[in-house]
Design brief:
- By secondary structure, the protein is of the alpha+beta class.
- The chain contains four helices and three strands.
- It has a single domain, classed as GMP Synthetase, Chain A, domain 3.
- Helices cover about 55% and strands about 15% of the residues.
- The chain is elongated and about 65 Å long.
Length: about 130
């Protein structure tokens, strides 16, 4: 990825986050919603916007529908606010990386606990 694409990704992430927190009044977006990352295609025409939502799967689906329906508004606002030649088409997706990381951490904790329990159950060879 080029430095320019990285800069555009950061700019889009920052502006979309600002729009979500200040300008969108959709009740589906009332929970804790954050833009975790943006990945823009090399031709700068399409950006995949990853959204993290605190809550259950129903909340996540609702937020994704709400933010997707606001995509046109978000794009128009960015066109007015940003000095880019072309504002990419926005495609929103849930970012499951935090949940996956938590699941891996739980598995590792479980394995550590299981190993500790097994280690304490083995009699000491010296005794």
């Amino acid at each position: 990825m080029s430095r320019r694409t990285d800069r555009i990704n950061g700019l889009l992430r920052q502006e979309i986050s600002r729009l979500l927190s200040r300008d969108l009044n959709d009740p589906r977006l009332s929970g804790v919603v954050s833009i975790t990352r943006v990945e823009t295609s090399s031709d700068l025409r399409v950006s995949r916007v990853y959204v993290s939502v605190l809550g259950g799967s129903d909340d996540k689906d609702s937020v994704l529908k709400g933010i997707s329906s606001a995509g046109g508004f978000i794009r128009r606002e960015m066109r007015d606010r940003l000095s880019l030649r072309y504002i990419p088409d926005l495609r929103f997706a849930l970012d499951e990386s935090m949940e996956e990381a938590q699941q891996i951490q739980r598995l590792m904790d479980h394995l550590t606990t299981t190993d500790d329990q097994r280690g304490s159950a083995v009699p000491d060879a010296a005794g």
